[in-house]
Amino acid sequence: MSNQQNQLDHLFSALGDTTRRAVLARLCQGPAAVSELALEFDMALPSFTQHLRVLEHSGLVVSEKNGRVRTYQLAPAGLKEAEQWLAAQRSDWEKRFNQLDAYLNKIKENHNV
Fold first, then answer.
1. Please, how many CA atoms are within 13 Å of residue 107, restricted to the half-sphere of its CB?
2. How far apart are CA 18 and CA 59, in angstroms?
3. pLDDT digits (tens, 9 = 90+) for 26-64
4. What are phi and psi of 102, to 5 degrees?
5. Contact at 8 Å (CB) between 34 and 52?
6. What angle do CA 77, 25, 76 make, to 5 degrees?
7. C or N terminus of the chain, fewer CB within 10 Å?
8. pTM of the full predicted structure?
9. Exposure of 20 in the CB half-sphere (CA atoms within 13 A)
């Protein structure tokens, strides 16, 4: 498995969880400390920090520790890979649908002759 595929697996796995998507939505408003982020979720802090580690490992967020406070913020470049992969898939699908459409139109024309 290539490095890029491995990164995509981590990225989509991270995005597949409701809590992690909610954390990303919250971080769209700006950076936040772990304690501030955790307030919105009904779970133990160790479980919540595991979600943050997954997000950071996938490249979707970055953290910075200042004293005892760790602050997280979005890493927009992390979504770029997913965006590029989805765009390539969309392009392939559109090409195939256009080919199917052309084929069906050809059949339709031959039936009307």
1. 6
2. 17
3. 999 999 999 999 999 999 999 999 999 999 999 999 999
4. -65, -40
5. yes
6. 5
7. C
8. 0.79
9. 22
By DSSP bridging, strand 61-66 and strand 32-33 are: unpaired
Q: What is the mean pLDDT of the chain?
A: 93
Q: Is 66 left (phi over 0), alpha (psi -120 to 50) or beta?
A: beta
Order of strands across the sheet with 32-33? 32-33, 69-74, 61-66
**Burial group, residue 71, by CB count within 10 angstroms (0-12, 13-18, 19+):** middle
Residue 70 pairs with which residues in a beta bridge? 65
- The rounded Cα 69 to chain-centroid distance in angstroms is 26
From the CA atom positions of the chain, what is the Rg in Å? 21
Which stretch of 14-23, 25-34, 50-59, 74-83 has the lowest confidence by average pLDDT?
74-83
Residue 113 has pLDDT above 70, yes or no: no
Using CA atoms, how far apart are residues 109 and 9, in angstroms rounded to an integer? 44
